[in-house]
Amino acid sequence: MKFNNKADVTMPKDISKKQASTSLTEAKTIPPQTCALILAAVGALLLVISAFLPWGTLGPETKPPPSNYLSTITSIMRAAAIIAWIGIVLHEYLKNPLFSHAAFAASSLLSFLAVGMFTFTGTPLSWGAYSSLTGGILLASGIITEKLKVEIVIESKQNDKTN
Q1: Which of 39, 61, 98, 158 is the most buried (most CB within 10 A)?
Q2: In this structure, are residues 117 and 68 in contact, taking their beta carbons and an 8 Å threshold?
């Protein structure tokens, strides 16, 4: 068989390009909805955990914030955690992601608001505030992941033993 140019060379019809490139690797993809749900679940879990961790450290010269201010921050954080879990349930049971995204955005904004309010007390931040901030970021990134249709591809090499 004589080939005149490179365009004449084709692959056999039974092997596609994807099969040829992944003959030794097995690829699994995680769809965007699942990626968003995983990020939101981790974020919501961090919001719940932040309610049980200390938000600040009091030193010898640090004046404690007023108790009514702290109860407002606590109420905001609890609302953020509850709304995040409601968003996860909505994401699972509704076909339209609009309501779950609204719940994730509201929860994320409430967690940012709570951390911002606590920052204004002048108390140095501790684990609770950081986990709340991380949870809010993960909730927001869950929305962005689903809107941008980000897929995670996991490749694993197969051991090809032909002995």
Answers
A1: 39
A2: no
